[in-house]
Please model this.
Amino acid sequence: GAGVSQTPSNKVTEKGKYVELRCDPISGHTALYWYRQSLGQGPEFLIYFQGTGAADDSGLPNDRFFAVRPEGSVSTLKIQRTERGDSAVYLCASSLGGQVGETQYFGPGTRLLVL
Amino acid sequence: AQSVTQLDSQVPVFEEAPVELRCNYSSSVSVYLFWYVQYPNQGLQLLLKYLSGSTLVKGINGFEAEFNKSQTSFHLRKPSVHISDTAEYFCAVRPAGGGNKLTFGTGTQLKVEL
Model:
């Protein structure tokens, strides 16, 4: 079946602009996660959704970052007033029910470059 | 809070040789442990995970890892590597008692040479 998909695959924007990154999880997966991977680093947790609600947003770096999942499937990560330091690969993952030991399946990521 | 240390940023190895990628973690609570592989321009793929039971865990593509609680380690091994194993490998932990976020190490680039 289809895996996690993310669009766009690449996004170039200018400092100060607004961007939206989209994630389509595996069908039927109720848990969805966003991570950010900077160059030479491992992924860092941003936010976790269980259904439509954000169950843990402790990883969002500041109030310029916001994510939604209005219907419990597709999620959008929104970044306002982008800064050069926001340049990274943004990864989305989903899992079946949010149980602690279950596998998170990752998408290919969106590579964001802020000029 | 948890942290993960992958001691080697790069590991070069010849094809058909054995390899070990090291992972150590720090946590005040019990954790579940994971190894993911990332091929160029692809998403992270789960290799194996340790939740409980036998400390030797076997995964896909001939990889295995051993959980050592006293040394807080979860090293990844393969007895004979192939060119196609060239990729970035990430070790990750997650609290066993609750919480869903994975904490990753900085990764180890495995380069298999002929």
Q: What stands out?
A: Chain B has a mean pLDDT of 94.
